[in-house]
């Protein structure tokens, strides 16, 4: 396909035009692969080999050429379909097909194999057994045959991290091997870069991720191990040492600023809170705010996002806001950020967030003597139960109900139940709980069972 189309190329084409041409050829080859498989599956292997050899030849000339994702996905999809007929069949990786080709370099073979790995991850639902088997096979090939030189240690550590994640996804029985993968990723980077790793953003970030993931797995295997806190401390030190100059490339920042980094930090702060260890909270909040600033997110929006997802409270404390967060946020926004009016101004664009905020703080201030708190002059303490219910019901009455709406409504109902319980209104607590179940679950039989339980409670 590539060779046939190349006859129409001219010497004066720009690199962008050639890139577009190659990627279009990849898509067409993918479509051809699907058609041929339906009528003559014997030719599929030769077509995919020829297409990838041509892509590899182009990629050797143009380093920024996009990956042949569509073609690789189609091949993996075909393999998964075949596995349903005969799971015992020996399925080939692209390494087996292309490693002897003179047109395929180690670099391009690595790119193709990583795309194959990603495709098997995405196709797991089609054939779980085959996909797991092929992933492990590709991991081993990449680690033993492809990323074996000193200048590929970053790629090697990245594959070790992915292998560790894949092993953990298989269940807790793979924890030991999982921890070993993360340990090897850490050793690989440290052996190559040593103390200089903090000068390179991708290297520093990848090392920090390795420490964090190992800490989470060690927590599962050995909950009392001191290595959990040691690894978390090492990860935080690495992330906090990163400085992003204005002239740095977007590629260098991509992984660091991805949502996965924030999710990892959320998991770490939750783990530390559950362990009752708050010493690192200040540094974690510093890092979270720094990440938002690097992504050019206004601090007011940052505050709204963190409040929306309940990321600024202490998991084992009744206080709705972690003191460490207030201290860190004040460093960036000044003393004004300690005033409730400032918080209200940040979240007033969302009615559910505003109602939730008012409910929590009105509940906390409800028993204070009149005039004892200066917040009362600018803060509503009379938010009613009906207002909270109405707001929650509006969130989950839309069809279809989004998981985000359910999350927000769930917290509104949860806080309302705490408020009613503290006032001894236990029957209303039961109504609130079942109201939420009614709105979220559409099963009539389930509703009948709930009605029976509710009637028993009322009696």
TrEMBL record:
Signal sequence bounds: none
One Gene Ontology CC term in the entry: nucleus
InterPro entries in the record: Peptidase_C50 (IPR005314)
GO MF annotation: an example: cysteine-type endopeptidase activity
Highest taxon of source: Eukaryota
GO BP term, pick one: proteolysis
PANTHER family linked: EXTRA SPINDLE POLES 1-RELATED, SEPARIN
Protein's name according to its UniProt entry: Separase
Organism: Vitis vinifera (Grape)
């Amino acid at each position: 396909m590539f060779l046939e189309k190349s006859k129409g190329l001219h010497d004066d084409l720009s690199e962008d035009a050639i890139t577009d041409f190659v990627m279009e050829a990849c898509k067409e080859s993918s479509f051809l692969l699907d058609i041929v498989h339906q009528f003559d599956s014997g030719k599929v292997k030769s077509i995919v080999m020829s297409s990838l050899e041509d892509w590899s030849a182009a990629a050797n000339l143009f380093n920024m050429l996009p990956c042949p994702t569509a073609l690789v996905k189609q091949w993996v999809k075909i393999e998964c379909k075949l596995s349903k007929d005969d799971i015992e069949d020996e399925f080939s990786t692209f390494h087996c097909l292309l490693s002897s080709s003179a047109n395929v370099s180690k670099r391009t073979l690595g790119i193709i194999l990583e795309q194959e790995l990603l495709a098997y991850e995405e196709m797991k639902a089609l054939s779980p057994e085959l996909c797991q088997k092929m992933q492990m096979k590709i991991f081993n090939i990449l680690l033993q045959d492809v990323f074996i030189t000193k200048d590929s240690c970053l790629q090697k550590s990245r594959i070790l991290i992915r292998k560790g994640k894949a092993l953990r996804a298989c269940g807790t029985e793979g924890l030991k091997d999982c921890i070993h993968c993360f340990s090897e990723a850490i050793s690989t980077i440290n052996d190559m870069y040593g103390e200089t790793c903090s000068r390179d953003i991708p290297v520093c970030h990848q090392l920090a991720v390795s420490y964090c993931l190992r800490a989470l797995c060690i927590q599962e295997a050995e909950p009392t191990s001191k290595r959990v806190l040691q690894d978390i401390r090492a990860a935080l030190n690495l992330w906090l040492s990163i400085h992003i100059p204005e002239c740095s490339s977007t590629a260098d920042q991509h992984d660091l600023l991805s949502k996965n980094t924030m999710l990892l930090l959320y998991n770490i702060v939750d783990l530390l809170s559950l362990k009752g260890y708050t010493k690192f909270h200040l540094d974690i909040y510093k890092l979270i705010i720094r990440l938002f600033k690097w992504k050019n997110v206004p601090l007011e929006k940052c505050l709204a996002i963190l409040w929306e997802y309940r990321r600024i409270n202490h998991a084992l404390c009744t206080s709705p806001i972690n003191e460490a967060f207030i201290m860190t946020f004040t460093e960036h926004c000044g003393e004004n950020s300690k005033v409730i009016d400032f918080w209200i101004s940040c979240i007033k664009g969302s009615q559910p967030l505003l109602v939730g905020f008012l409910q929590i703080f009105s509940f906390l201030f409800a028993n204070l003597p009149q005039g004892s708190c200066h917040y009362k002059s600018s803060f509503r303490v009379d938010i009613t139960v009906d207002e909270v219910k109405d707001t929650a019901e509006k969130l989950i009455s839309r069809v279809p109900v989004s998981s985000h709406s359910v999350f927000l409504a769930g917290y509104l109902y949860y806080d309302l139940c705490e408020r009613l319980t503290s006032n001894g209104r236990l029957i209303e607590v039961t109504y609130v709980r079942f109201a939420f179940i009614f709105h979220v679950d559409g099963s009539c039989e389930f509703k009948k069972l709930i009605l029976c339980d509710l009637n028993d409670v009322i009696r």
